[in-house]
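---------- Forwarded message ----------

FYI, see the Nuclear transport factor 2 family protein record below. Original note from H. follows.
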Amino acid sequence: MATEAATLEALTARITELESRSSIRDLVSDYCHGFDKRDYDKFLSIWWEDCVWDIGPPFGRFEGHSGIHEAIYDVLWPAWGESHHLSTNLKITFSDTDNATSICDVDCMGKLIDEDTCTIVGATYADQLQRRAGVWKILQRTVTIHYFNPIPGTVLSAPEAG
């Protein structure tokens, strides 16, 4: 019986980790979809109330849901007329069943409000994540921007109907 109980406990732990990994991957995607599609409710839903979003220069550090609101409505969305985030290389590490860290790389292409050409940003997101009452959210995201450059001659435009 003890072996059977241990096997069931191990299986439960593996399933819990798989579900947690899936939830954390969804947070990464909801960040991109929420930001790019200007869906503030989706974007806010990934953050704990006591979160920190440290975007670094030139944008700043924002704390709590009020800080997220300030970053989105006063800093970022007014600057970006259009954006498209592509995240990759997600690595998730669990310290226990309710705490994890993750790191992923991101390329963001878009158009700044005051420019007609495309700008590309390359960055790394390092996250501290927590599960509270069975729900995973971001506690802290630290952004390291590697480059933030215009791509002269590139104009973002919809394809022509054909």
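H. also flagged this: Helices lie at 2-36, 40-44, 64-79.
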